[in-house]
Design a protein that fits this description.
Layout: H1 6-24, H2 33-43, H3 49-72, H4 78-98, H5 104-124, H6 135-160, H7 164-173, H8 178-202, H9 208-214, H10 218-232, H11 237-256
Helix pairs in contact: 1-2, 1-3, 1-10, 2-3, 3-8, 3-9, 3-10, 4-6, 4-8, 5-6, 5-7, 5-11, 6-7, 7-8, 7-11
Length: 257
């Protein structure tokens, strides 16, 4: 499957390290990783390189998720996790059944449009934001965001490992403090990414040959996740939220073009 040069390995290692850094507390650090993995496989002459890159990257994501959970395990908000996870699993199941029919580029265009539209709605219409003054409205608003973004995150992660900005949109709209955001994200993605593995094996996206490459990239991914908290400690809540919103908007624009 793979004939990788030194430059290919360097690109994959850098992408893995950035992924870990993002998991460890630097919002958006791994934004280019999906594109890097797809480029490497395409450049190496692998058939359906974009499709195969999803399976190559998934075990790397799990290794970074494990480190992030070890670091932030006590900070998770399980109320939001339990609101997102059921719908995310439904989205994963849907993504599994349409994997062979929906191209990565078409999916990314859809995700980009949704991310930018919801960002505009968030800033333009504050009534969509949960209101502490009206608990019943807040509860309905949180549930609506959880259902819509959970389904989208599940489909996005199954088809393109692209749930990061979708989940970030939900968590930032819920106004979670920095470390609660990171802890909730860590548990969410560990559970979701592990649950995807049987589907990816069944689709033959993950194989012994792809895993032989993936496991070598655990080390830079884990290193990035371990380094992430050092950066996170130096970001106050305002800077952290600004980075998350920047990550969401840049990803939306990138997916569109």
């Amino acid at each position: 499957m793979l004939e990788l040069t030194v430059w290919h390995w360097t690109a994959l290692a850098l992408g893995s390290w950035l992924t870990g850094l993002g998991k460890g507390g630097v919002p958006g650090a791994g934004i280019v990783t999906v594109a890097v993995f797809a480029w490497v496989l395409d450049h190496a002459g692998v058939d359906e390189g974009v499709r195969r890159s999803v399976g190559l990257l998934l075990p790397v994501l799990v290794s970074a998720d494990l480190v992030a959970v070890l670091i932030y395990r006590q900070h998770a908000d399980w109320r939001h996790l339990l609101r997102l996870l059921p719908w995310t699993f439904v989205g994963i199941l849907g993504g599994y059944f349409v994997f062979d029919y929906l191209s990565g580029d078409r999916l990314k265009t859809i995700i980009g449009m949704i991310l930018l539209s919801m960002t505009a709605l968030h800033f333009g219409k504050r009534f969509l934001l949960p209101s502490q003054a009206n608990p019943s409205v807040a509860s309905r608003g949180e549930l609506a965001w959880g259902v819509a973004l959970g389904l989208l995150a599940g489909g996005a992660t199954m088809l393109a490992n692209a749930a990061g900005p979708v989940a970030a949109l939900y968590l930032i709209v819920m106004r979670l403090p920095k470390y609660v955001f990171l802890g909730t994200s860590a548990w969410l993605f560990l559970i979701v990414n592990v649950s995807k593995i049987p589907f990816m094996v069944d689709l033959e996206i993950i194989s012994f040959e792809s895993f032989d490459v993936s496991w070598k990239l655990f080390f830079p991914a884990a290193l990035g996740a371990w380094m992430g908290p050092w950066v996170a400690r130096r970001l106050n809540q305002t800077m952290f939220e600004a980075l998350v919103w920047f990550f969401i908007v840049v990803t939306g624009v990138k997916f569109l073009f």
